[in-house]
Every structure is written in structure tokens, then in C-alpha cells.
Amino acid sequence: MTIQQLYYFVKDWRKLFFFLACGLAVLMMVNIYLDYVFTRLQSSSFYFSESLLFSSFWLLFAPLLCVQFYLIQKTKKLSSGFLIVSSAIVVHLIAYPFFIWLLSKTMYDHIFPYEQTFSFGITAYLIKTVLIYSLSFIIFSISKNKIQTYLPVSEETTKQNTITSMVVSDVNHKKIIIEVCDVLYFSANPPYINIHHRSKKYLHNDTLKSLETQLNSDQFVRIHKSHMVNIHHIISYQSRQNGDYDITLSDDTVLRVSRNYAKDFRSKLENLHLTSK
User: Fold this and answer.
1) Where are the domains positioned within the chain?
2) Given its phi and psi angles, is residue 252 left (phi above 0), alpha (psi -120 to 50 degrees) or beta?
3) What is Dmax (Cα atoms) for the chain?
4) Hey, how many other C-beta atoms are within 10 angstroms of the C-beta on 29?
5) Residue 170, φ and ψ in degrees, nearest 5
6) What is the DSSP secondary structure assignment for residue 111, as one 8-state letter?
7) Among candidate residues 128, 133, 119, 120, the one with its CA nearest the CA of residue 67
8) In what order do the strands lie in the sheet with 175-179?
9) Domain named HTH LytTR-type: which ranges (predicted)?
């Protein structure tokens, strides 16, 4: 299962709950079978109804693990994660005897007291409960990080974060609005950047790193620590046979593509029809 498939799977809580319930139902059946084997070895009586009732402990994991996963997605602090795990353990151990008491009162001839079942739950299931919720927390946290890393950014979010025009100043400090599609490339000029426009060059108060996050990544590509170029203005590129490239822009400017950025540069040009030498 890929990261994207995992994301869309856990996004549907009904699927996640059904998956957990099925898995826990299997554990419940295994627990009943082990009860049967234990009673046979002890030469004691086996009551399926009671074993089924007390094995319902496993079914409580399904809703509580779903809630735990939901809360882990919302939190960013490690201390909050410990609080979530601790709360899940406490709620489970408190809810289990109440669940047994309620079912036995409504469906069985004999009622199992809350205190008796609570003591049984602590003795028989405490370590298992701690291990399951703790391991689930670790697995959910790892899955959360991977999902956030590989989660595809929506087109709407991309559009909101992409600028299409910029306000610059000329030598007379006159404010001018230029379209980024008309920019050939940007070059670093600390603490400023140079904007190489079709018509002229402008000085802008920003950094390439900051500007890179605001531009359309399908149109502008970093080719060097000091240069970012508009790929729509590239008319040719040529390998230097050492991992670097020379590119020629529409105004005949020649720039070097550093080998550190060559892979990303080539991938952005895959769908463009350029003259390669």
C-alpha cells in the first residue's frame, strides 16, 4: 500500500473502523479458543457465553483506536501524545467492566459486579492494553509523518500560494507591476535579488529561497544557488560533460546549471520541446 493509498484509506473512518473491528474480532475468537483449551487442560467447565462476554474486551479497541488516531493527527506535541495514550488506557480499563456489567444485566441470568470485572481486567489485560495503545501511538505517529511528507498538495492550495505578478521599483522609485511570466530569470544580489525582466533589470527586496516558495514550480526552476530561471524562456541547453549544463535564454543570456540542481532541471524540461546539444 502506497502512502497516498494509506492516506485515502484512513481518511474514511468507516473503512478504518471496519478493518479494526474485523481484526479484533479475530483476536476475540482466538481468545475464546484459548479459554477453551485452558479449561480442558484444567479439567474444568467451559461456558461459551461467558467466554464470549469477557472476550469483548478486544472489541473496545476498535472505537478507541480510531479516536486515538484522530487525536494524534490533530496534535503536534509529544506530551499531548502521552496524554492521549494514557487517557485511552484508562478509558478502556474503566469502560470494560461497565460494558460487562451492562451486557450481563440485559442479556444474562447472572450479573457480573463492576468491581469484580475491573479487578479481572487489571490483572488479565493491563499489560496488553498498555502495549497495544503504546505501539499504536508509535505506528500512527510514523504514518502521520509519512502522510504529511508525501501528501499531494491540492490545486486550490497551489494556486493560493502562487504569485502571478510582482510590484517593483525603478531607479526613480516609481512602483511598477510586472507579470512573472515575463521574467527571464532571478539572480541573487544579497541582501536583494535582481529581476531580469524582458524590458529591463529591477532590484527587489527579497531572497531567492523565499521567492521560490511563492512561484509556480512548474514554471520556475532553481538552476544554481544564485539563479532561478523561467523555463518557458529557455531556447536550448547543452551538457558540459561534467554534470553541469549551459542554458540559453530567449534574450541570448547564457547561464550555468549546477550539477546539484541538474536532476530537477531535467525533470522540469521533460515535456518541453527544446534544442539539446
Assistant:
1) 3-150, 160-276
2) left
3) 100
4) 13
5) -90, -170
6) P
7) 133
8) 175-179, 165-169, 201-204, 192-197, 183-189, 227-230, 220-224
9) 166-271
Q: Which residue type, as a one-letter code, is found at position 49?
A: S
In one letter, which amino acid is 143?
A: S
**Nearest-5° Cα angle at 35, 30 to 39:** 150
Query: For residue range 130-173, what is the model confidence (pLDDT) as tens digits?
Result: 998 998 888 877 766 655 554 444 444 444 568 889 998 877 88
Bridge partners for 254 per DSSP = 248
**d(C-alpha 53, C-alpha 38), whole Å:** 17
d(CA 16, CA 67): 11
pTM beyond 0.70, yes or no: no
Task: Please tell me the distance from the alpha carbon of residue 233 to that of residue 251, in angstroms, as a whole number.
Answer: 8
pLDDT tens for 64-118 read 887 888 787 777 676 788 888 999 999 999 999 999 999 888 888 888 999 999 9
Q: Which helix (H) or strand (E) holds 6?
A: helix 3-11
- List phi, psi (to 5°) of 49: -60, -40
CA 68, CA 45: separation in Å to the nearest integer?
Answer: 38
210 Cα distance to chain centroid: 23
205: which 3 cell numbers? 527586496
- Determine the CATH number of domain 160-276: 2.40.50.1020
